Amino acid sequence: MHSAIDNLGPEHLQTDLWQSTYSLAGEAYVHAIVEWLARHLRAQRVMVARAIDLPVTRVRVVASTQRHAPDSFALAGTPCELVYRGQRLVQTSGLGQTFPQLCDTGSDSFHGYPFLDDQGQCYGHLAMFFADSTTLPDWFDTLLEPITARLGAELLHMEQQTRLEAAERQLALHNRVLRLTTQHTPLKQVLDTLLNGIEIDHPGTLCSIMALDRTGRFLRLLSAPSLPAAYLAAIDGVEIGPEIGSCGAAAYRRQRVIVNDTLQHPYWAASRELALRFELHSCWSQPILSGDRVLGVFAIYHHLPSVAGANDFAMIEHVSDLVCQVLLHHETMEALRLKSEHYQMLLRHGADGTVVLDREGRFLEISEGFLKQICAEGPEAIMATRIWDWSANLEPSDILKILQSHHDQPLIFQTAMRHVDGSLWDAEITATAVEIDGQSLIWASARDITERKKLEAALLREARLDSLTGVANRGNFLQALQKEVTRARRYPQPLSVLMLDLDHFKNVNDQYGHSTGDDVLRTLCRESAPLLRKEDLMGRLGGEEFAIMLPHTGVEEAAEAARRLLARILDMSVQVPEVHDRIHFSCSIGVASLAPEDADGERLLARADKALYQAKAAGRGCVKVL
Ligand SMILES: Nc1nc2c(ncn2[C@@H]2O[C@H](COP(=O)(O)OP(=O)(O)OP(=O)(O)O)[C@@H](O)[C@H]2O)c(=O)[nH]1
Where's the GGDEF domain (predicted)? Predict the structure, then answer.
């Protein structure tokens, strides 16, 4: 059967076409042509479509006379598939037999016209379906030629327009994501924004981003705004491997893994149930790489099996590059944040007090530890002071010298510091020159060494004193005597020494016990002390033998002092616990004064010892002078 236009002349049609479309362009023109053809040819269905991607497997319907026509359809098994080989296709009858999937449509005849680009590649087509077998007259082909050329041009223009708009949207999204990233927006929010934008721009897609964890073995979910929560729970923490789904495999292989049909692909063998349950029939995964390092995986899912084309690959690569930048930025910021938190923690909670000072001694930072050390309640009042307000023994000029000197190594020194109430504490200061933000500053830590100092002093004292009696020990006494001999010679000044030895002390020990003997030694020293001047020094030379150094004292004076001391000693007594009685004791004393022939202190001491020997020989309990 011929078509309805046989009754209309080409001139009439040409005029009608011009009237129907002269003011139209773009999509409106395409729609008008489709309607015009359907009306005049009494076609069952007229449609214009364009290729979605290359190679062409699906086409998008741009205009159709069929109500509720799908947005797009797969070419396989349709007469349109043949048009995309680049040639006009006319089947005047028997369409249902040639293309069984069209049986139900009631179409018997098909006329298809390809739109070809410069390389002869078909990028769109015009299709007309007729319920009856239909042949179009040759003159109609001539009439149609400029129409198909214009349709093709409009399609190209629309395509460019669409691409331009998509590129603008992509750029806007890209900028938005980067802006959010630099504004320190939480990572999930940045990635959600990106994936939402992609899903709006690519209807039917569901996106996800997963990060490879520290072990490099497991993927952790970062963002997937549209995928079902139960599915996400199932894949969060998935281990990577050469054939573990799309994402696990992409991360492991460091290559894009495109699974067009999850129910068929071997990588999804173990997850088929999951894919079925959530109707996820395709999954394209792209590893997010920074050099050799895998940061994570970007994935796009579809509810239908979907073949990825060149445009999809370009988009996937663009998105994963962007995500890579976002993740690296986040990683850097996170590392900085941690570092700064560690420093703040050290500054706040370190046992040592820490301050940051400028080179003029002003406080820039004060740690909790330092506030505790100076017993201050808060930093406010302290910030207004200068570091030397807290030093007890350094002048501001000394401190300025330290602050302004250029030292490569930390400067460590001990100094006395003040508490807020003015009392003192000992500090060991470590001052380090640091460069912060281009400014040359001093980072100083103060350790409270008050207790350590006390301990050191006690140890020093112990090392110089006799542990039983508390008077100077032999070494300390001899050292002091030697010093005094030197001084007495230089100025010159008299100097005398008493040698003192308890009489029959062995008997005390034997009779009353060693502890009573100790008590006698302690009593002797303790009760002799008030008789000595500040500059005098008593020392225990050993056992029950003592010496007393009397600076600025001549022999007569010394003998007098010895006699006074002896009289006092004879009065001394100690309690003997067992006998409930006190016992007395006596001693002998030898006196010698520094003479020109005394080579040193020991020599002087030897002469006093000689005098002591004489006192013992003279019956004890007396003073002898040499
Ligand atoms: N309790 C006590 N006894 C000491 C200590 N050091 C030495 N002695 C005793 O002092 C006594 C000294 O005895 P001797 O050297 O015989 O002298 P002495 O008995 O005092 O006799 P003369 O010096 O000759 O009067 C000994 O019994 C020592 O054990 C001490 O730290 N504590």
Answer: 493-626
504 touches ligand 1 (CB under 6 Å): yes
Q: How large is the ipTM? A: 0.97
Cis ω for the linkage preceding 55 (within 30 of 0): yes
Partnered with residue 547 across adjacent β-strands are 499, 539
Residues 6+ apart with CB under 8 A from 64: 34, 45, 46, 47, 48
Q: From the first residue on, what is the mean pLDDT of each consecutive set of 10 residues in the chain (626 residues)?
A: 64 88 92 94 94 86 90 92 93 92 90 93 95 88 91 92 88 94 92 96 95 96 97 96 96 96 96 95 96 95 90 92 94 85 72 88 91 91 93 91 82 92 94 84 92 87 88 94 94 95 96 94 97 96 96 97 97 88 95 92 96 97 95
399: left (phi over 0), alpha (psi -120 to 50) or beta: alpha
Per 3-state DSSP, the chain is made up of helix, strand and coil in percentages (nearest 5) of: 45, 25, 30
- Say if pTM beats, i.e. exceeds, 0.80: no
Please say whether the beta carbons of 588 and 505 come within 8 A.
no
**Separation of alpha carbons 324 and 20, rounded Å:** 53
Residues with active-site annotation: 544
**Going by DSSP bridges, is the β-strand pair 282-290/257-259 parallel, antiparallel, or unpaired?**
antiparallel
Q: Is the CB of 546 under 6 A from ligand 1?
A: no
Q: Best of 506, 522, 620 to mutate for ligand 1, by most ligand atoms within 8 A of CB?
A: 506
Which domains, and CATH codes, for the chain?
4-163 (3.30.450.40), 184-335 (3.30.450.40), 355-452 (3.30.450.20), 465-625 (3.30.70.270)
CA-520 nearest atom, ligand 1: 1
